[in-house]
Write a structure and sequence with these properties.
The structure is a homodimer of 158-residue chains. With 158 residues, chain A is α+β, with helices and mostly antiparallel strands. Chain A folds into two domains: 41 residues, Winged helix-like DNA-binding domain superfamily/Winged helix DNA-binding domain (Arc Repressor Mutant, subunit A); 80 residues, Lrp/AsnC effector binding domain/regulation of amino acid metabolism (RAM) domain (Alpha-Beta Plaits, 2-Layer Sandwich), CATH 3.30.70. Helix content of chain A is 36%, strand content 30%. The first copy, chain A, has five helices and five strands. In chain A, strands 3-4-2-5 form a four-stranded antiparallel beta sheet. In chain A, a hairpin with a 4-residue loop joins strand 3 and strand 4. In chain A, helix 2 crosses helix 3. The structure holds a DNA duplex (17 and 17 nucleotides).
Chain lengths: 158, 158
Amino acid sequence: MNREQDPGLDSVDRHILAELQADGRMTNVELARRVNLSAPPCLRRVRRLEEAGIIRGYHADIDPVSLGWEVTFFALVGLESQKQAVLDAFEALASSWPEVRECHMIRGGGDFLLRLVARDTAHENELTARLTNAPAVLRVQTLQTIRTAKDEAGVPVA
Amino acid sequence: MNREQDPGLDSVDRHILAELQADGRMTNVELARRVNLSAPPCLRRVRRLEEAGIIRGYHADIDPVSLGWEVTFFALVGLESQKQAVLDAFEALASSWPEVRECHMIRGGGDFLLRLVARDTAHENELTARLTNAPAVLRVQTLQTIRTAKDEAGVPVA
DNA sequence: GCTGAAAAGCATCGCCT
DNA sequence: AGGCGATGCTTTTCAGC
């Protein structure tokens, strides 16, 4: 669907990506004005970027606390085996929990980094316990965020 | 700007949040149809959610690889002091790097979890070295993502 | 707080450069 | 490839329930 480092990505495309990353609900007319194009070719470029899989979607960024998710934390989970079946099973289990927002397998074998949300500290403890007691889990290290200095969703478009 | 667990957030509001989290560029008419409202009150609700800070923004989700960011990794950084001035200085330094996308201070003193992007493995090594050599840094543990099973930007709207 | 109509603005198409 | 003009929607406001 998308090639590595697409050659047909000029400075106008990158400008479009930067603008839509900053404000994904901008109208096409406003976007066109900012990148010095008229509306139709601007829209054609956006559609092309979407169809090439370079723009994967658009999402509202919602304040977790407003929805009752008071705690965000990370967990480093170590498994007792590196067998593919064990890794897959843990991955499937973790991914099935709505509180698990990210699940990354870490190089070096048998470790996962998760990002989770919890309603409160008790809920966080419960989630940690559920992780600890999950099949093949050896240890769980929770990394509790006390302050977030920077949290930018995307990537530099330099 | 936003209160904890806003009481004036009914099921229609939550439905709106879920829809815009899934597709932030949906037209207001389509959104209204999905939440069984006509367009004007739907738009008023969206504006209210934006002004209350519950919707913090809208962002295009861009494929990092298409822009040349081949490597995404995390770094656990331990500092040699927990003095506020030292923590603040590290936070300011890390946040100033465009490759650092997230910078979280971790409970327990003197630790930070960063999420970074790099153009390639050499660039990743260079960033790790820059972290290691930064003032007051005691150790850097890189957590290299080899597979991401789940990566949902938002929060459960249940 | 919703509906419905109406004005203004936008998305999108076909054609031309 | 980008621009122009036309058409049909969408957004947004406003009066009235």
